[in-house]
């Protein structure tokens, strides 16, 4: 038996999740998970499980409202993966208003940051499945609009 935080899931039930990749000035909106949820203290994108009869976009909108208190606008599905613990994850590029006031829900989120992709990739607390996402982005498996060459040093960094 391993002690993986997601091992509480029944193997026969394939969970589905959707997350929001929100970019501002070449930085990604990242949350640190609270101590009350699985994988406490890990860094990841806002998002969560898709409920029955809910689309991926609807799940993104609901989870972002619940976790960081803002309206979000899913733009494009950029990637899809399956975690080592058997969850299907849909990765959505999404936007929030420039003047959106982020208010985290402390039950679920300990803090939030805007991080460059390279900073996130190197972060010791990054959720393992998000390493795979960043590696796939680096390998240009997918692209994100207005954010080409995400791992290159940039004059504004
Ligand atoms: N929120 C979030 N979940 C992610 C990311 N990457 C990733 O593999 N996941 C996986 O997606 C699944 C849903 O995450 P979650 O634990 O935030 O969802 P949730 O709050 O709805 O959990 P629950 O359905 O048990 O209440 C988990 O298996 C989680 O590990 C990410 O960047 N953000």
Description:
- With 157 residues, the protein is α+β, with helices and mostly antiparallel strands.
- The chain has a single domain (16-138), classed as Alpha-Beta Complex (Nucleoside Triphosphate Pyrophosphohydrolase), CATH 3.90.79.
- The protein has three helices and seven strands, in the order E-E-E-E-H-E-E-E-H-H.
- It has helices at 56-68, 117-121, 128-138, and strands spanning 16-24, 27-33, 43-44, 47-49, 73-82, 88-95, 109-115.
- Strands 1, 2, 3, 4, 5, 6 and 7 form a seven-stranded mixed beta sheet that branches.
- A hairpin with a 2-residue loop joins strand 1 and strand 2.
- The chain is globular.
- It starts with 15 loop residues before the first strand and ends in a 19-residue tail after the last helix.
- The model has no long low-confidence stretch (mean pLDDT 91).
- Bound molecules: 8-OXO-guanosine-5'-triphosphate.
- The site of 8-OXO-guanosine-5'-triphosphate has 17 residues, from strand 1, strand 4 and helix 3.
Layout: helices, strands, pairs:
Blueprint: E1 16-24, E2 27-33, E3 43-44, E4 47-49, H1 56-68, E5 73-82, E6 88-95, E7 109-115, H2 117-121, H3 128-138
Parallel strand pairs: 1-6
Antiparallel strand pairs: 1-2, 1-4, 2-3, 2-7, 5-6
The structure holds 8-OXO-guanosine-5'-triphosphate (8GT).
């Amino acid at each position: 038996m391993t002690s993986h935080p997601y091992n509480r899931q029944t193997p026969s039930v394939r969970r589905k999740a959707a997350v929001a990749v929100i970019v501002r000035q070449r930085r990604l909106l990242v949350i640190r998970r609270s101590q009350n949820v699985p994988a406490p203290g890990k860094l990841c994108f806002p998002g969560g499980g898709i409920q029955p009869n809910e689309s991926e976009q609807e799940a993104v909108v609901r989870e972002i409202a619940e976790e960081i208190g803002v309206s979000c606008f899913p733009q494009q599905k950029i990637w899809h993966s399956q975690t080592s613990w058997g969850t299907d994850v849909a990765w959505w590029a999404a936007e929030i208003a420039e003047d959106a006031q982020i208010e985290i829900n402390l039950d679920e989120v300990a803090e939030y940051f805007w991080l460059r992709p390279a900073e996130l990739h190197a972060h010791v607390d990054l959720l393992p499945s998000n390493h795979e996402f960043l590696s796939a982005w680096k390998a240009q498996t997918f692209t994100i609009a207005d954010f080409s060459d995400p791992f290159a040093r940039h004059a504004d960094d």
